[in-house]
Amino acid sequence: MGGRRSGHRAGGERAFLVRIVTRQALDRLRALDRRKEAYVGPWLPEPLLTAPDVAEDVELAESVSMAMLLVLETLSPTERAVFVLRDVFDLDYDEIAEGVGKCQAAVRQIAHRARAHVAARRPHGIASPAETRAALQAFQREVETGELQGLLDVLAPDVVALSDGGGVRHALLRPVVGIGDVARLLAAGWWRRDAERSVEPVQINGGPGLLVHVDGEIDGVVAVRVEGGYVTGAYHVRNTEKLSHVERETAVTR
Questions:
Q1: Is residue 221 part of a domain?
Q2: Are residues 82 and 193 in the same domain?
Q3: pLDDT in tens, 199-238
Q4: What ranges in 39-191 are assigned the alpha helix state H?
Q5: Do 84 and 108 reside in the same domain of the chain?
Q6: Is 48 in contact with 190 (CB distance < 8 Å)?
Q7: Whether residues 24 and 97 fall in one domain
């Protein structure tokens, strides 16, 4: 009897915690969505400086990558919560239903819809570590030199460049898409050239990236998406409010 009571009590505590945490997360996501409506220019997730071993766990690295986080941003707050609770944390539908305040049937439909949405938009063609290193080194070299032909050789035809300054720092006001436009943008000096600048290869959100210092201070981060040996995405974060987690590594585990 005591074991059953303690088990029931533990189950009740777990359900309570799931409900409270989920509802707080939903409130935060909805507030963030309202903030993004007035955001200046493209909005990018806050970058994390991660340890090299995160990239070795392909599934974990993809789940926290900048590209994947951008896919999740296209979901509604409820869809995001259901998808993460079910597909990442593997919670039962009844627990999720209580957490989001919907019936199990509705949660199953939301999970199916969110899963299909993510599957259709998630990045494909995971690059090997050697391909990733080679592509990042070439990208860094060509960006620093501004060599147009070199950039054309390393960028994918449908490459996308996004820059987030949030109205605080100078940045692109809209995405740039396509190898020609992105290569010309980089060759023309997307990065500041009027100060003492250094670029350091790092791991950002479990993937390749560049940490940019200007006059000894962190000026921004570029998360780089590599597929098939080519750079398919460059996500440049300069908003100072989003750079607090690139000064030291953030632990990321399953």
A1: yes
A2: no
A3: 899 999 999 999 999 888 999 999 999 998 899 999 999 9
A4: 52-56, 58-64, 66-73, 77-83, 93-100, 104-121, 129-145, 148-154, 179-187
A5: yes
A6: no
A7: yes
